[in-house]
Design goal:
This protein is α/β, with parallel strands linked by helices. The chain is built from 8 helices and 15 strands. The strands form 3 sheets. Strands 1-3-2-4-7-5 form a 6-stranded mixed beta sheet, with helices on both faces. Strands 6, 8, 10, 13, 14 and 15 form a 6-stranded mixed beta sheet that branches. The model has no long low-confidence stretch (mean pLDDT 92).
Length: 310
């Protein structure tokens, strides 16, 4: 059991007002509205850990301007993670009914995640800035995934060297951030940060630096900045789904591991699966299998592009 996660959930719920598991801070001056999503996937507690540190900081240094909502996206999935007694139970606590980052546009209102979305939707629609904090099952450097109206200065401000675009386009389904105004043509800047491996202390630091950079950029609070002079950009162009549950990846492909056209990806009770082009692998599940065949086994990107910021 993870008592730390259980206690943090209790703390946020105690500080909630109109909506359960939403803690709101109001700055002394008017300003923009920012939402920070914690625990969109129940087995990724890094956002909660970052919240813990930020509350210690804001207790001594109150928010300077604007409104800041800390939203626990999927409380029940995090509760399931907190009470899990095995690695397999932790892995299966990713969501209850529907992956909140694979939410179809006509999401079922009778699902747990669909009902939770309806609860938090008014806050999301009113946001000027949205940040969703995630972590990965395998060791990984942090990565930034921009959505919707995110502009160049956001990419340069977040202290993350790796930028990944195209994930939402490939999936054709709704990220949680899309409901916060993450559609093209809206004014809401929407960013997802994969902070590193689930329980790695470095992941917490990466989450904190991302929140601080975004709040500093938009004038909610002054924080030290950590400029990123060089960033590596990857464009996702394909997701690999298994035809049935007998399939497994032939190895645990690391994030951004290079792969060549024709390389073997997976085998099972059917034709082997090969890589269709040169590029890199991304978001493969630990153990070589996704929790269900409804989720992608991994993504494939084009070869990376290096960019220098000024």
């Amino acid at each position: 059991m993870n008592q730390r996660v259980a206690k943090l959930l209790e703390t946020i719920d105690e500080k909630s007002e109109a909506i359960p598991y939403v803690h709101t801070l109001t700055g002394r001056d008017p300003g923009k509205t920012c939402v920070i999503f914690l625990g969109t996937h129940g087995n990724e507690p890094v956002g909660l850990y970052a919240y813990e540190h930020l509350m210690e900081y804001f207790a001594q240094h109150p928010l300077e301007a604007g409104t800041l909502h800390f939203i626990v996206s999927n409380p029940q999935a995090l509760k399931n993670y907190a009470s899990a007694s095995t690695v397999d139970e932790q892995r299966r606590s990713r969501f209850v009914d529907i992956n909140m980052n694979r939410m179809p546009k006509d999401h079922p209102r009778d699902s747990y995640e669909g009902r939770r979305l309806q609860e938090i939707l008014p806050l999301m629609e009113a946001a000027d800035i949205a940040l969703d904090l995630h972590s990965t099952s395998l060791p990984s450097d942090p990565m930034l995934i921009p959505l919707g109206a995110t502009e160049e200065h956001h990419l340069q401000a977040i202290p993350v060297e790796t930028i990944v675009s195209g994930v939402g386009d490939v999936l054709g389904e709704q990220f949680l951030l899309h409901y916060a105004g993450g559609y093209p043509g809206t004014s809401c800047a929407s960013l997802l940060v994969e902070c590193g491996e689930h329980e790695d202390p470095k992941s917490i630091s990466n989450a904190l630096h991302s929140v601080e950079a975004l709040l500093h950029l938009h004038g909610l609070h002054r924080f030290p900045v950590h400029p990123t002079p060089t960033q590596h950009a990857y464009t996702v162009v394909r997701s690999i789904f298994f035809p049935h549950s007998s399939y497994c990846l032939v190895e645990e492909f690391g994030n951004f591991a290079p792969i060549k056209e024709g390389d073997l990806i997976a085998t099972g009770d059917g034709p082997p699966m090969f890589c269709p082009h040169d590029g890199h692998t991304l978001f493969a599940f630990q153990g070589g299998k996704p929790p269900s065949i409804a989720e992608e086994a991994l993504f494939l990107t084009l070869p990376r592009v290096t960019r220098t910021n000024r």
